[in-house]
Structures are given as structure tokens and as C-alpha cells.
Amino acid sequence: MSCPGGICLEPGRRRRALILLGLMMLVFIVLSGFSFIKSRGQVTPNTVTFAAHHATDGKRVFQAYGCMGCHTIVGNGAYFAPDLTKEYQNVGPAWLAAFLPSAGSWPTEVAVLTQLQNKDIAEAAGVDNIEDYYQKYPGAKTRVERRGGQNTFMPNLRFRANEVGQLIAFLKYTSAMNTEGWPPAVKTGPLPARLERLYGRSVAPGTTAAPAPASTGQPTAAAESPAERGAQHVQTFGCTACHSPEDKKIIGPPWRGIYGSQEKLADGTTVTVDDAYIIESILKPTAKTVDGYPEGTMPTYEGLLNDEQIQEIIAYIKTL
Amino acid sequence: MSKPKYQTQRLSLRFFMLMLVLFILQVGLGMVLALQHSDPTLLAGTLNFNTVRSMHLNLGILWILSGFIGAILFVGPLLSRRELAAPWLIKFLFCALIVATGWNMFTQVFAMQGIAGWWAGQPWLQEGLEYIEGGRIFDTIVLIGFAILCYVVLRTFPPLREWNEIHWGLGIGVVALMVVWVFGLFYVPRLDLQEYFRWFVVHYWVEGVWEVIHISLIGILIVLLFKVSVKEVGYAVFWGVVLVWLSGLIGNAHHYFWVGTPEFWQFWGSLFSALEPLPLVFCFWHIYLDAHTNQKPLENAPAFYFILGSVVLEQVGAGILGFTMTFSLTNVWSHGTWVTPAHGHLALFGTFGMLVIGAAYYAIPVLRTGKAGHFDQRLGKLAFWLVFIGVLGLALAFALGGTVQVYIYRTLGLDWFGGDIIPSLSIYKILVAVFGFVLTIGAGLIVYDLSTLGRQPSSVAAPAFPPAGFKPHAVTGWSRPLSGFEAGIWLTAMWVFGFLITFNLLSFNLDVVRMQGNPTLPYLLAGIGYPGLFLTTLLFVWRFLASMEARVTAAAASMAAGGPPAVGLTQALSPAS
Question: Across the interface, which of B128, B335, B338 has its CB nearest the CB of A67?
């Protein structure tokens, strides 16, 4: 810099600017230190568990699948899918456990109920019946009513054993985090009123005003044959979220032509798919796992399906 | 074929070519993302949205870095008046950059199987954190690459006591590039702490380091384009850098509002990051001064077009749009919605992308033909307008869609993306794809033009002077030189629209919106603010460039009258110059 008039103020100004910069760095470092001290009481992942799963493992799973590439977490991410920060608090562990394994379809009430039969999940949820669950986690009720059984846009990620539980533990941790009032509380009234405001007319539960993605079909009123009734149960219980009635491998073995076939199990033995095997798979799904499929993903339907219903489902599978 | 002044400047050419390849790939992936937004089942299971997006983000950083390296290698010898140090290391750096990029793209696919490559507590393949998705293997290669760049630049530069402001800017820039990267090299188990350090890398890179390199490169390119001395831009470079740091250092706190860090950041972040546009206004004003005090006609129009685009979009995308969402009271609504990518695309592509394309437009003709402006510049100008309109349109689509999203998602609390949000945004999703397509065409033209430019020296003639078919803007009178007063009016108009956008975000706090759910006011403010801002930006750049053309008119008139050319024109008018 030249010095006009022989008076050179520039070097002094520059020095003062750099000193100011140093001071600001000090302020920043002090504030940062205060942000993470223990006495602030911010929850840390090493203190959060869900059943036998740790939130610290869940965070690794969350990063490994690149969840932030579609979703947002504490508002950061891709804005392509919902923010997950307060998801646990909104829909609860049973809904998440019903949704996450296949993510291909939205859980039905029975699917949530099935998860609630699990002692660990009921304990984490703090309730053991669906009414209380809906009360405590209103988001689950809304979702079941508005979309239960329909297809989702989320790709099927085929989580491995434990990963679903670990993710739930992580979401439990983020839900417990103090995010200083973000996302802002909704103050525009009850859900039906808010839906009406958006669509300009009332929207009945179980529907959306917008065209829904290809639905798996609604159960018909009166089914005659056992196989038809079986197809209805499959619909109600959301079995096809994981089991394709065709050849596609979703999460569990596909059903086309499975009845009477030989399946190789994870322990190396072979089993014939007959009535006894299917009944056992529905009531005690952990007893035998087909080779190449994740272990322990399928919940038990003991107490949810009676013998007659199971027989009807078997009759349905036979037709495929 | 004539030569550039220093032999080793040629090494920059390969980095510019790599930049073009990565650029067009990134834009292509952006188009895939736009289509996946409209049809979420597209490529699901083959290349999921999150994988395509992480590639899009990583390539966006990598091609700009490649352009930065090219530009630094090109100006390094000119600044130092000697050849680059260790050319073999630069060749190695080039190979390392290709390997690292390929590896990065390859490892991103593992996210679909949930494989991060955990070993010794670190994810070695990919880590699924926005902007820094690469795993430790990639991170390490990049760190080595940065170290090589530091070594080359610092060894090439003259002894410390001979450094001018541009030496300091680039020297600090390349060292800080490496230092800040280190904060992203560790897995952090706490989400709040992880976000704290992730923004160290992302924010301090963009607003601390890239910005410094940006200011320095703009400075030296202005020196080269208008043949002024470094002293004339040195003042602007020094104060630009200092202002960036004074505002950006604590300004980083605008990322710490809602990530689990304490509330006091809302005060510090809102206050200091509101100052962040200051250096940008300063830089903006200087490019006006630098371009207008000196009356030489533009020798290399596309290079200046892109540099102007860079400074203007920095003002609009980083400065104004950044300002609108920087207060905790506005950010609470914009955070986590489409309002953010409007700012992101303009600030990142606009500021840094346009700069490195401008640098390439300056350097490539010199490297290939030894002359600065002797090439057909029409394609470059057309490409500029296409990418400029494309990226402004993209930002408009994101911003308006984002405003609708804020209302549905936050005000009405309808969090159903597939059922309520996606259908409501469909028109904006189509607009994103349409303007993305315009941008893609422009990008394709840039790649074609820069890769073929100057390849056949025999066919390259000096542009006709004045160019054939040249007509001043008779109707608009836009061939008048742009006065400082007029430039100030334009800038003020942009900020007025910026304030409307700020009020649009603020208005979501009003009871009439928040309690009664009436979106009229925010929609109205956004509907005026965003289109107004982007239209003013477009017209201003048009006006600025028309005023640059006016010099050609003035020179032609002066020649026709038989008088001496205007001051400073003699050199530019001589075809041998």
C-alpha cells in the first residue's frame, strides 16, 4: 500500500484488525468449551439403551447406511425425507420396530400390536396395550390410520440382525436431546383441522387428498373360500411388507411356489415347507431361519393369529 | 504454437480438464436427483437417492478443488516470477486426485448395504456425514494431496519478506485448507459434538478458507485481465480477507442453533453471521471499481463474465440469502427445508464454481495459444448465460418450494413427506428439473468449448474489432458506462428484496400464521422477494456487461472519427498485443 500524503495509517489499522481477530478466536474457544461441559446436562449416547441395544452402536448404523443422504437429523441432511430427530418420541419403539425391517410398507395396527407383544419393546414403550400406546405416541396412531398397509417411498435397506434395535436406540437418544426448541411446536390446532387447511376440504382417516402410491389393495367385504380369507389376513397383518407373494426377495423368503418345496436352513439342514413348518414359522419364527435371510427379524404372531386363521393363511400360500 | 510465460504453468491444464470431467458428472448426477425427487422409485435399489446425493456433493467439492489447484498452479509462477517447485509432485498430485475421486465414488455405493468399513473405531470406506461422506482412506489421500499442494505453493513463492497480499492470501489459504480438513478425520460418538466439528470443516472451509482463496484469485485475475498492478487490488484483498474472518469466525455459530449446543450460540451466531455479507459487499464494490476505473475493453469476455457471475452470485446467494436465514428467529423455520439448498446452490456453485470456470477461461487460451483473448468467445458467453439463468432458476424453485414446505411441515405440522409434502411440492420439483436442464446444457457447452478451445491455432483469428454485427443497446440505453451511483442503486434493490425474504421467514412467527395457519403473508413476501431478487440479479449482470461493451462502442466511435483511441485502448486495439 502506498501512503498518500506521507501519513501511513494502513499498517496500524491492519495490526488492530488482527488483534481483534485474535480476541474473537478466544471468545469462540471459550463458548465452545462451555457447550460440551457435563453440567449442561445434555444427553450423551453412552447413557441411552433400547432393550439390549446401545445408542452408540445405533449412531454407527445410522451413518453406515447414509441416512442423512435422504433424511435430516437435527435439521441437517437432504430434505428428501422426514426429519428423524424427534421420531422416537412421536411414533414410539413398536411402530419403528414394525416399520424399519422392510420399510417397504407402512405398518398396520396389527403390525404395531405384534411388536408390542415383545416384552422388551413394551417395556421401552412404557405401555402394553395399543390404546395407551396411541395415547403416548400419537404419531403412530395417525400413521396407522392414514397409511397403514400402503407402500412407502423408502427403499428396502435389508438391515442386519440387531441393526433395527440399534437404530431405535439411536433415535431414542436424539429424541431425548435438547435441541433448544427446534423443530418449533405446531400451534395450528388438531390434525383434521390442519389437513383441511391444506387441502381445502376434510380428509378422512385412511386416505390422503393426494393420489397415494400403488396400494396393496383393500380387503374386500366378504371372502368365501379359506384361501381368500387367508389373503385378507395377510393384508391385515402386513405380511407382504417382508414376504413377496411373487418371487421377489424383500426381507423374508418369497411365497410363490414355496409350499411343498425344500428350503435349506442356516444350520445346514433342509426342511420341507409343510403345514407344521409354516405354523412353527408364524408362532416361533426364531426356531428355524432359512439360509441367506436375516435371523430374528420376524416377530411372533402367537396370540394374534388363531389356528383357523393360520390354516387360512396356509391355504392362501398354497395357491401361490 | 506460442508458449505461456513459464513452462510449468502448463501443469495447470490437466487440472482444468479434470475439473471439466468432474463438473459435467456432478451436473449429470444433479439431474438424476431432480428426477428422483419427482419419482422416488427411480433407480431405487440400484443407486438410491442418498448415494447419488453424496456423489453429487463430493464431486461438487472435488471439481472446485481441482479448479482451485489449476488456478493456483497457473498464477503461482506469475506471482513468484519463477517456475513451480517440484513438478513431479504436481503430476503425482494429479494422479492422486483421480484415484481419490474414483475411490470416493466407488465407496459411496456401500451406503446401500450399510457397510462403513469400521476398523480401529473409524469408518474407512464411507461415513455418511453430509458433505464429508468419504471414509478415512479417502480422507487420508486428500490430506496428503493438500500437503503436496502446500509444499509446492510455499516452495514456489518468493521469501516471506517479499510477499504481497495475494501471496499471503493464497499461502494462508492452502495451509488452512489442510488444517481445517483435519477436524473431519475423527469419528465422534456424540451427535451434537459431531455436528460441531462437521461444521468446522464445512463452514470454515467455505467461509474461512475457500473464501480467502476466492478473494486472492479474484484479485490476481483482475490484475491479469485488466493489466493493473497487484498494489491496486492488494488493499481489497487484505481487507476482504480480514472482514471474512472477523464475521465468519464466530459466524460459524449460525450452525449451532439447533444441533444440541447451548442457546447462547443463537445470540453470537445471529449477530456475527449477520455481518458476513460485509466482505461480500466490499468484494462486489471492488469488482465494480476495478472493472470501471480502467477503461480497456475486455480482451477475454467469457473469463470476465464468469468472474463477475462469481462475485454477484456470492453477493446474492451467500450474502443476501445467507443473511435471510442467519437469525435464529428466521433459521428456526428455514432450517431443514428446501429454503436451504436455494442458498447452497447459489453460494457454492455461484461463488466458487463460476470463479474456477472463469479462471479456466482465462488460463486455457494462454496455455494453448499463448494469447489471452484470441478465440471465438461467443460460445463461452452463451454458456455463461445458460448456467447463470439455470442456477438462478434452480434457486428460485428451491426457495419457493421451500416456503411451501415450511408452511406444511412446520406450521401445519404435517410431516408426511410421501402423502402431504411431496405432492404439494410437485410443481417446484418440475421447475428444479427444468432449470437443472438449462444448467446442464450450459455446462455441456462450457466443457465442449474449454476442451476444444485453441486446439487449432491456424483457425484462430483475433476477434474483429468492433465485432461484426455489433449493435449498442439503442432502446435501453444500456450501452452507457455504469456509474457508481447506478451500481449502488442495483445493489440496494437486491438488498430490499433480501429484506422482503427475511420478513417472509420472520412472518412465520406471527400469530396469524403460527396460530391461525394463514399463509398469505409469508407466501406474498416470498412471491415478491425471491423472483424480485433473482430478476434484479439477472438484469444487473446484463446491465454490467452491456456497460463493458460500451467501451467497444467508444473505441470504435473514436477510431471512426479518426481521433486517437481512448486512454488505455492503444494496447488492446493492436492485434499483436
Answer: B128
